[in-house]
Each structure stands twice: as C-alpha cells, then as structure tokens.
Amino acid sequence: MQGSVVTVFGGNGFIGRSLVRQLAARGHLVRVASRAPHKAARLVAEGPAGAILPVYASVTDSASVAAALNGAGAAINLVSILTENGKASFRAINAEAPGRVAQRARDAGVDRFVQVSAIGAALDAPSQYGRSKAEGERRVREAFPEATILRPSVVFGPQDSFLNMFGLMAKLLPILPVYYPQTRLQPVFVEDVAEAARLCLTGEAETSETSGGIFELGGPDQMSMEEIMAFVAQAVGRKPRLLPVPNALAMAQARVFENLPGKLLTRDQLAMLGQDNIVTSGALTLQALGVAPQGVYARAPEYLSQISVLRTLLN
Question: What is the pTM of this model?
Fold first, then answer.
C-alpha cells in the first residue's frame, strides 16, 4: 500500500487530523474529503509536499462521494454527529451516509473500507445516537461486507471536546455537576484510534480479522464519570466540589439545554451516559491490531495543564 491513495471522509475532524498525518508521514497520498476543504490548509502545510489533498465531498451527496473515491485504494468514513441540528440528523449522517459511502467505495473498486462507529452501537440502544450508529454499521455491511468496523469509547487527546471541556469548567466553576457519576468509560487516546484505522486501511494490522471484523477500542484505564471529573480538576490545578446531579433533575435540565444554541446537554446524551461505555469482554481490541493503548493518566495531564480560559475565549 506504500504510496497508495487513501480517502479520509471527515479528515478535518479530531480523529481525522491524526489519521491524515500518520498516513502522509508513511508515504501515502491522502485525500481529505469534507464539506469545508479549506479548513485542511494547516494539515497540508504540516505534511510532506503533495501528500495531502483537500477535496470537497458531502456524505449526503453520492456524486461528490464518488468523485472523492475515484482511484483510491482504501477509504474510511469518520463523519458522525453527537447531536442533531437541522438537516444534520442522526438518520441522515450516522445511519444513511455510511452505507452510501461504502456503496460508492465498492463501486469505485476500493480494496479496503473502514467505518468508525462507537462502543454501545446497537439497534436496541437506549439513545438515538447508539441506534443510528448501529444502523450505519448494518448499511455498511450490506454494501461492503469485508469492511472493518472500529468502535472507540470516548476519544481523548489535545483539542478533544471531552476532557478539555471539563477542564475549562473546573477552571471557572467552584462546583462541578456530575451526571451519572458511576457510569464507567474507557477513554482511548486519539493517536491510538488513528493508528488502528491506519493499520486496517493499509493491511498492516497484525490480524487477518480486519476483513469484516469489529474492533472495540478502549484505553487501559476504566474510570467512572466521577473519577474522570476529579482527575481533570486535579490536572488543571483546581479543587472544585463535585456535585452528583439526580437523574430526574438532569432530564429537566436537558429539556431546557437541548433547545438552546450549542446544545450543551440533551436527553439523548443522558441516555448514552446511563450505560457503561467500556470494551465488551471477548471483543477484538487495539491489542489484536498490534496497538499498545496509552492511558488517560499518562497522556492527558500534559495538555490539560495548559488549559487557559483567556486562550479559549480568544480562539
């Protein structure tokens, strides 16, 4: 696969940027397919000359998807939403689009296809998000049976919207609300997710089960929500009081917040938080792909300690 063309749908995103850098550094020609190709300018500048090409593609538009895949040897779909906004619905983006991209990849003669889903994806999941991700997987399987499915837990790393958000809250607030404090998560480092995707796309993984396989990606640390909040507060040098929020009050707050700009909290997010988000016993994991996972305690303090309220406001 050295020097092959790889199309990364959602290459401007959090995981996508890490994946694009890894692929380009190893000699691949990377098409960063998104609705805002101009946002990939920094990626282009960081990579080897000519290695990264931003192209326009919308996963809801078959023609643009097909154009982005023309001549590619491998492709990955990273496009996903956590909350609905106008036409960007769970059905359109998480459920229907993956099947469309996989079908166009099949039509274009792509050798390897990867769909990034999420731990907890199930047709009977309590959240619309979880159900939509499972439907997306189903449609990918119909179009491209040999596709690899990657299901990460919550992904952390510099510029994440998870630990950084809690860190900023800890900087500003004397009291931190904690929703579903006992729910367990298994945060996975963004570079490890990107490496797993790269190995599947290039055929370099240590297992043959990537063809049609489902891998659940989690880090070495299983943490409750309360433990995560306490860790983040300590990492940013604060000691706020952690206040568990009763479920009934949380739902009432979500009904209000989900109708405000930014949708800081929704009832669907609470439905997700009501279930543990950890690797299933017996599942194929990062280790099966040859990736040694890096933990929150080892990697997060280095960037959480740099959180600045002023810098955040200026950005």
Answer: 0.96
